[in-house]
Design a protein that fits this description.
The chain has about 290 residues and is of the alpha/beta class. About 50% of the residues lie in helices and about 10% in strands. The chain folds into 2 domains: about 140 residues, Response regulator (Rossmann fold); about 110 residues, Methyltransferase, Methionine Synthase (B12-binding Domains), Chain A, domain 1, CATH 1.10.1240.30. α1 links the parallel β1 and β2.
């Protein structure tokens, strides 16, 4: 009889940059022999920057150490629009406050709690999946950069989608994937964040519209990203229809100024149907099946 190999589950990729050799050894001892994780350990700040840049699409969580290099490292990640789940190890003497350095889902863990690192990794990922696409980032002395902020928001949505798919496959249950936080729902956001989220959705949908009938290889991914953001923010279908109609009105005015027919816009009803179908499928999959 031929032996049946166990189904290979995707591993979580952990990027580690800590200055203490003892911490490195402890983390290796706890994770390196666990087939659920793969470790990438940076030996220097430059090494860490290269790791983050080259593996930003593969890394599932970062482990960093509080210290003089921490803020520089996190500033680099923000400037490169790289947002990832993170566990920050700190000494018991550190007085934690309400400020955050990277994003609001960063997880600070005392050295004495290092023995539970697997739990902290899981929690950091879970909190990261709850982040709103317009989550607050720390104030910095650098001037605002709209392009960088949009890139960070898009990267956040891509990372959340990749992580949820990996967790669904690796863990075999939908709990984390569908653990939407009511705090991130559109109706529960402060007015300014509501406006920012809707504007981000309009920009994303506009790109989908402009490329819908083009030979765009990543169109489905764009639609999935848009639907993912709408799903986790619990955006009503009527709001998506409103976004569509506003864009159609805008395009109709432009066509009229150019002396062209508006009939071409009727074809874009397919875009709306396609987008709503994607959203309905996501909701269908989120309903627990009867056992």
């Amino acid at each position: 009889m031929t032996a049946v190999s166990p189904i290979a589950r995707p591993q979580l990729s952990i990027g580690v940059y800590v200055q203490s050799p003892d911490l490195v050894r402890s983390i290796e001892e706890m994770l390196v022999n666990d087939d659920r994780y793969t470790l990438s350990i940076a030996q220097s700040e430059t090494d860490f920057f290269q790791l983050a840049e080259h593996q930003k699409q593969q890394l599932d969580c970062l482990i960093l150490q509080d210290g003089k290099e921490l803020e520089t490292s996190l500033n680099h990640l923000r400037n490169e629009a790289i947002l990832l789940p993170i566990v920050i190890l700190h000494t018991k003497e550190r007085q934690l406050d309400l400020r955050f350095l990277y994003h609001t889902a960063e997880l600070w863990v005392s050295f004495k709690e290092l023995h539970q690192i697997e739990t902290w990794i899981d929690r950091a990922i879970e909190e990261f999946l709850k982040l709103s696409p317009v989550c607050q980032l720390p104030d910095t002395i650098t001037p605002p950069d709209v392009t960088r902020d949009l890139m960070a928001q898009n990267f956040l949505m891509l990372q959340q989608r990749r992580l949820t798919d990996k967790l669904k496959e690796r863990l075999g249950y939908l709990g984390i994937y569908y653990n939407r936080s009511p705090k991130a729902f559109l109706r529960n956001l402060p007015p300014q964040e509501q406006a920012e989220l809707l504007e981000q959705l309009r920009l994303e949908y506009r790109v989908i519209i402009l490329n819908y009938f083009q030979d765009e290889h990543d169109l489905n991914e764009r639609i999935d990203n848009f639907v993912n953001a709408a799903f986790f923010a619990d955006v009503p279908v009527s709001q998506i229809v409103e976004i569509h109609m506003e864009l159609m009105d805008e395009f109709a005015k432009q066509l009229k100024l150019e002396g062209r027919s508006e009939e071409i816009l009727l074809d874009y009803r397919l875009t709306l149907i396609d987008t709503i179908a994607h959203l309905c499928e996501m909701y269908r999959r989120s309903i627990p099946r009867e056992s």
